[in-house]
Amino acid sequence: MQVLGQKLRSRAKDLGLSNAEVARRAGLSERRYGFYVTGDREPDLSTLLRICKVLATTPNALLGISEEGREGSNRAALSDRIRTAIRALSEHDLQVLAIQAEALVGHRGRMK
Question: 88, exposed or middle or buried, with CB in 10 Å at 0-12, 13-18, 19+?
Fold first, then answer.
């Protein structure tokens, strides 16, 4: 399944994640995940869903089934990167991030 492998590589690259990191976050061995990336094997549904969660995407996107409004959207890609990073933050880090985001919004509002 070459489409899946290409989409896995592309999505991980968009998020700045290595294959090893995707595998770790999905609870898979690097070798097993590597089989999916190379197209040598296909994941079962539950494994595909775990990978989708790590990559903040959908099975349809990974399988090459078009989703309206998502492809080519830089804003969607940036939002996905932020959501992925948020999963690794502690509660304290999230509080700091929320304050920073609110400050950025407030600053942009004053500049108009």
Answer: exposed
Q: Name the nearest CA neighbour of 28 among 41, 13, 14.
A: 41
Query: In sequence order, what DSSP letters do the residues of the chain get, joined into one string?
Result: -HHHHHHHHHHHHHHT--HHHHHHHHT--HHHHHHHHHTSS---HHHHHHHHHHHT--HHHHTT---TTTTT-HHHHHHHHHHHHHTT--HHHHHHHHHHHHHHHHHHHHT-
Q: What is the pLDDT of residues 40-81, one digit of tens each?
A: 999 999 999 999 999 988 899 899 886 554 445 678 778 878
The model carries a pTM of: 0.62
